[in-house]
Amino acid sequence: MEQQNDSFNALFEITRTINSILEPGALLEKVLEIAMTHLSAERGFVMLSDNTSESGYTVVALKNFNSKKASNEFAASSSVVTSVLQSGEAVLTFDAMSDERFESSVSIIAQKILSIICIPLRAGERISGAVYLDSSKSRKAFTEEAVKFLTVFGSLAAIAIENAQRYTTLEKENTRLKHEVDVSHLFGNIIGKSEKWKKVLEISQRVLDVDAAVLITGESGTGKELIARAIHEHGTRKGEAFVAVNSSALPEHLMESELFGYVKGSFTGAAADKKGLVEVANGGTLFLDEIGELPLLLQSKILRLLQEKEYRRVGDTVNRKANIRIIAATNKELAEEVKGNRFREDLYFRLNVVGIHLPPLRERKDDIPLLANHFVRKAAENYKRPVEGIHPEAMQLLLANQWKGNVREFQNVIERAVVLCRETQLTKDDFLFDSKDQAVLQKTGMTLADFERQLIETTLEEMNGNRTRTAERLGVSLRWLQYRIKEWGNE
Ligand SMILES: Nc1ncnc2c1ncn2[C@@H]1O[C@H](COP(=O)(O)OP(=O)(O)O)[C@@H](O)[C@H]1O
Ligand SMILES: [Mg+2]
Q1: Which range is least confidently modeled, 172-176, 179-183, 405-409, 426-430?
Q2: Whose CA is nearest to atom 17 of ligand 1?
Q3: Counting atoms of ligand 1 from 1, which one is nearest the CA of 410?
Q4: What percentage of the chain has pLDDT greater than the value 70?
């Protein structure tokens, strides 16, 4: 259990590394370092496929090999590495010197190597390289458990390396085009220039043309769905379907038929065959919102969908192929869910190949003026108001306010101010920042209907109950207002 937890933590660290290192060289060093530390290996290297080299592979990172004699020393390991690259299977040996597989290797004996572990770097079907570790001291760290760990590690690392290489290419291209890429304009409707937000946009940018799963995390209302859509709309699957599913919306069995469809007669009421959302999304993107709420049974079916690209309709006997990209989102700490056995570890790692964490608004205060102006323009257009901007004093107020983290709430506050405003600039007075209002507005999960009702009630109060003046102020007809009020009376 202890060791499993260790492995878990190490893999967790690796997925974080994946997101933070964009430079391939540094990434490879780090990958090697993590593997060596975890297995207490003394030496190691990473090899990647390379069309320009004679052997087809090049050593791209190494530790504790004598670099002058490196080529001799690699000869020792070459039999191991070659077999791993060809078979795609990991090699583990405790007693290299007497292992008949390495009989011919003089240097294994010369260097008194006791144990060797070598795993393929595998991205999908393709083997893109290998990680080799050996030790002349310890045998105990090299266990079957370690092979399992390294195999998962190998696939995470392979994808990370590909992404980093792709990113470097992309970056070079961009620099060529223009000396500086302003990521803040890459996704038109997504606003933000703060360092943290730029990082979000950068990572989103590099997954556009990769089909890897993406896991978007962040508090509610931080823009998870917005980012998911942007990735879809700017990626290779643009123009195809984007199907959003809320994983907590339905009980398990209904969710299963919703996702995968069913065949006629598979349960009472199944009068005809029905397509599931996976099929509807075919060719496009399936967005699994609130994935942390997905029941365990369905987690395993989603895992299968990710790994085998296959699924089955409820009650069916044939497998169907799915061609979809999966983007998942959650406001939960999934690592914690895994530790509590509520979320499958393998699915977590599969999804988190690319993790994008969205910072709450309170951690990107620099973006407040940009966001505020953006929402002012949008609301002024929607509600046909003459508002053009925000008075500096009012902006000060917005900056000083303790936003809990939710961009949606922030947007509501601005919209409301725009609706109330009679001038061309929003002023302090338009914000009605008394503590009561703020408390109500900062409650999460407010719907548009709640918002509308609250706005009407506040305005009515302000107009001492005068409906004509309230309607005027809100820019709606008196009949519409009366209709709404009557509706609430009937609830
Ligand atoms: N960076 C941003 N730029 C523009 N609008 C944003 C941004 N972040 C969030 N929003 C707005 O906030 C609202 C909530 O975003 P959403 O993607 O639904 O959040 P989540 O899925 O995390 O709950 C949306 O209406 C979106 O337009
Ligand atoms: Mg959402």
Answers
A1: 179-183
A2: 223
A3: 12
A4: 83
Given a cut of 50, whether residue 485 has pLDDT beyond it is yes
Q: What is the DSSP string of 80-110?
A: HHHHHHHH---EEES-GGG-GGGTT-HHHHH
Q: Extract the tokens encoding 465.
A: 């109950």
Q: Which of 377, 407, 414 to mutate to test the pocket of ligand 1 (most atoms within 8 A of CB)?
A: 407
Cα-to-centroid distance, 337 and ligand 2 (Å): 19
pLDDT at 284: 95
Contact of 119 with 130, CB cutoff 8 Å? yes
SS3 328: strand
Residues paired with 49 in a beta bridge = 57
Helix (H, G, I), strand (E, B) or coil at 349: helix
Q: Which domains are present in the chain?
A: 2-155 (3.30.450.40), 183-359 (3.40.50.300), 362-489 (1.10.8.60)
**Which ligand has the nearest atom to the CA of 188?**
1
The share of the chain scoring above pLDDT 90, in percent, equals: 32
Give first-to-last CA distance, the chain, whole Å.
55
| pTM recorded for the entire structure | 0.58
Q: What tokens were used for 69?
A: 């004699």
Ligand 1-lining residues (CB < 6 angstroms) = 190-192, 218, 220-226, 407-408, 411
pLDDT tens for each residue of 55-99:
777 788 888 876 555 555 565 567 778 888 888 888 887 766 666
